[in-house]
Give the backbone structure.
Amino acid sequence: MSTQLRVMLVDDHALVRSAIRQALTAPDVVIVAEAATAEEALRIAPGVRPDVALIDIDLPGMSGIRLLRELAPRLPATQFVMLTVSADRRDVFEAVRLGAVGYLTKDLDPAALLRAIRGAREGDLAMPRKLAGRIVRDLVLAARGAGPLVESGDPQLMSLSSREHEVLKLLAGGLTDREVGKALGISIRTVESHVSSVLRKLDARNRADAARRYRGA
């Protein structure tokens, strides 16, 4: 194993990537690649084969969760850690199910981020204790058939990420893409990307159809 920890960053915000680079500044850590989209990461990652890949969930186009699904089988030696603003249990559970060894939120202290990334290469769980405990409880309940992960309901709606749920909720409330973007602090392009993903996951004909599904849930 190399003495240097080779890290790849996948985040669509340049300022966020810059902040992460600063947080990970250390003699034993090197940033070997960066990508602003999942599609770009798919092209780059197999060539650089990082020790750890830090991936945002809310990416334009392909989501970070889908990127994890695509990359994990191709890079078995890479440790994948999700770094995001979402602590939604659906996202966390899906990421862990697909092979992520960590799930960190962006309000994490820089020193704690560095410790978590160093530990991830060794196989440590890079996740706050409270969040890890909640996921373990969910897994136990799900195994018993009594937990929220296996509750009855529309399985397609349950497949949406937390951000997609937020977008759909606002669309169902009659907001335009611009208004949704303003409410969530994201660009119209990102809103359109989430809407496209929602329609695909729900097999909805259009936005009105998706909104009806949401209101009837």
